[in-house]
Design brief:
single chain, Rossmann fold, 9-stranded mixed sheet, 6 helices, about 25% helix, globular, ThuA-like domain-containing protein, ThuA-like, Class_I_gatase-like, signal
């Protein structure tokens, strides 16, 4: 067999490999904090990177808020805020660029302390759905998975027992979002350090269309162990795919499918 005869299949194989590596979409993971910093942030960032490797999407990570500009954000189908706190976008130009990104159909995923961000930025409060209020100690609780039929709840048990830091929120987002999961306050001590809890209706994960874009938020994800939990990773993966436009975004507040 000649050398030329061998070269052709090798070149073809290389071309096939390059084509197979083409990412389905691109995700930007943002984890800047100006308030409390969770020690699980590196685990959360690494988990999203691993999900990208396993499911064929590209992941960039940053804590540089100047990356929130029109040209850079245009590269991504969704942006994941991993336990951002305080005011991570502190320049008006960065906020304006992110708002334009969402208005033009971009996606947002907020994980855990993403709700402990942007208190002086009402538009962001609407995007995430509700602001953090307080929390009790880390403990086991039962999550009622109520938003069936979404990629973010696929494969989750109807009653999901897990250990996390369970947020109470300053308002109930239900009127404006599709609630995907609630907390059963009978299964843990829900009273936070401010002395109250949310009561019978306690959303902990939700999604909704917002200002032209797509938003998903989960209050879970405080602990390092969360990012090694296959069920929680499936939950996050579904939220990423839904907000990136790679899975059905059935998130209208009155949706039941």
């Amino acid at each position: 067999m000649s050398a030329a005869a061998v070269a052709l299949p090798l070149a073809a194989a290389g071309a096939t490999t390059a084509h197979a590596a083409e990412p389905a979409f691109k995700v930007l993971v943002f984890s800047k904090t100006t308030g409390y910093r969770h020690d699980s942030i590196p685990d959360g960032v690494a988990a999203v990177q691993k999900l990208g490797q396993e499911h064929g999407f590209a992941v960039d990570t940053t804590e540089d808020a100047t990356q929130f500009n029109d040209a850079n954000l245009a590269k991504y189908q969704t942006v994941v805020f991993v336990s951002t706190t305080g005011d991570p976008l502190d320049q008006q130009s960065e906020k304006d660029a992110f708002q334009r990104y969402i208005e033009h159909g971009g996606g947002y995923v907020g994980i855990h302390a993403a709700a402990d961000s942007g208190y002086s930025w009402a538009w962001y409060g609407g995007l995430v759905g509700a602001y953090f209020w307080d929390h009790p100690s880390i403990q086991q609780a039962t999550v009622n998975v109520v938003g069936q039929g979404t990629a973010a709840t696929k494969g989750l048990p109807n009653r999901w027992t897990r250990t996390d830091e369970w947020y109470n929120y300053r308002s109930d987002p239900r009127a404006d979002v599709r609630v995907l999961a609630t907390l059963d306050e009978r299964t843990y001590n829900p009273v936070g350090y401010s002395g109250g809890s949310m009561g019978e209706d306690h959303p902990i994960a939700w999604c909704h269309p917002y200002d032209g874009g797509r938003s998903f938020y989960t209050g879970m994800g405080h602990t390092k162990e969360s990012y090694a939990d296959p069920l929680f990773l499936s939950h996050i993966l579904g939220g990423i795919q839904m907000t990136a436009g790679a899975a059905k975004f059935n998130c209208d507040p009155d949706s039941t499918d």
